[in-house]
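Journal club prep, notes for RB
We'll compare a predicted complex against what the paper describes. Inputs for the 2-phosphoglycolic acid case:
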Amino acid sequence: MKKFLIIANWKLNGNLKFINKNINLIKKNINNSLSFCNLSIAPPYIYINYINNFLKNTSISLTAQDVDIHIKGSFTGETSIKMLKDVGVKYIIIGHSERRLFHNENNNLISKKFILIKNNGLIPILCLGETKEQKAQNQTEQVCIQQINNIIKNSNINIFNKTIIAYEPVWAIGSGKSADIDKIQKIILFIKKYISSLNNKVAKNIYFLYGGSVNYSNIETFFKTNIINGFLIGKASLEIQNFISLVKKSDKLISLLNRS
Ligand code: PGA
């Protein structure tokens, strides 16, 4: 059985004090205590290596919040895939709506990142989702498929094998209001069917995460379907005690589902 994957996306938050206070707490409470979930932490770049030293030989992995498309050279301010590999990163988030919005990242650039990550043996987490305006115009499916097609056009469908797609409606991120479970299920099923029509085996090997205002109080909702294979969590991953409870609660909810 696939393990449920929970990613804590700390975005541009935290400092050494926060990490020193919390990383051992996470390790003590989470390491080897989960039966059905895996946890990964996505800190700001500058702390990745530091945290890696704490997490070595644990079941908790590291995620990067982005990557550059260049391997090395005169690209001031950037971080390459080889560097991320060097410091123990397993997953890389790309196409997050905040990068699309604040850094003008487009589908083409994100395609290049996706292919680069895959070809270097790490796992891309491709974020997809509609804005409020696109939602109002019923463009959700179109928006998601456009991004997927762009990647296929620059490579081929096999590039999606063993990767992760995070459905994150832009309007739900940080808003305190998550998307309706029926809508989430509908769009993930749509994406899955689309990929399946191109390659059934590849579609089966993709993890689908949901992200957008997931918190301790609303996680039950997302377990009403088994189409979601994990969460990408922003705000609620910063309150560490609550976050640990959320992760443990998820593990417990899955164990109950498995028994029934
Ligand atoms: P949120 O962020 O949990 O604060 O809504 C999710 C994300 O941006 O991935």
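Talking point for the session: Strands lie at 4-9, 37-42, 61-64, 89-94, 123-128, 164-167, 207-211, 230-233.
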